[in-house]
């Protein structure tokens, strides 16, 4: 039973947006956590950088997700009409 993209287009586009948002947030948090872990091990500290960078990952990921949502909610720009000045 193949997936009928034409019939389920809106559903599929919304699913891709939700997956993109989730993976973006998880990626930001994971990257910052691992960076904090590396710095803590390198400097011999006990969780200071893990905490700081995990919080930064959550804040940064939320910022990126927010901007992606705003971009998805914007109406597409109207097509550009060619004028005589554009042809020169």
Secondary structure blueprint with pairings:
Blueprint: H1 9-43, H2 48-73, H3 84-87
Task: Give a short overview.
The chain is mainly α and about 90 residues long. Helices cover about 75% and strands about 0% of the residues. The protein has three helices and no strands.
What are the key terms here?
3 helices, 74% helix
What does this structure look like?
The structure is a single chain. The chain has helices at residues 9-43, 48-73, 84-87. The chain has a domain at 15-72. Helix 1 (9-43) runs antiparallel to helix 2. It is built from 3 helices and no strands. With 88 residues, it is mainly alpha-helical. The mean pLDDT is 88. The longest helix is centred in the first third of the chain and has 35 residues, at 9-43.
Class per helix and strand makeup: mainly alpha
- End-to-end separation in angstroms reads 53 Å
What's the Cα radius of gyration?
A: 21 Å
Instruction: Give start-end ranges of low-pLDDT stretches.
Output: none
**How do the helices and strands follow one another from N- to C-terminus?**
HHH
Strand tally = 0
Share of residues in strands = under 5%
Give the biggest beta sheet.
Answer: none
Question: How would the global form be characterised?
Answer: elongated
- Overall average residue pLDDT: 88
Helix content: over 70%
Number of helices: 3
């Amino acid at each position: 039973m193949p997936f009928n993209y034409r019939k389920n287009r809106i559903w599929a586009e919304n699913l891709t947006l939700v997956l993109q948002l989730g993976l973006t947030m998880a990626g930001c948090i994971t990257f910052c956590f691992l960076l904090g872990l590396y710095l803590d091990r390198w400097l011999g500290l006990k969780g200071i950088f893990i905490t700081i960078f995990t919080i930064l990952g959550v804040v940064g990921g939320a910022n990126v997700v927010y901007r992606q949502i705003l971009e998805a909610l914007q109406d597409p720009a109207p097509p550009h009409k060619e004028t005589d000045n554009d042809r020169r």
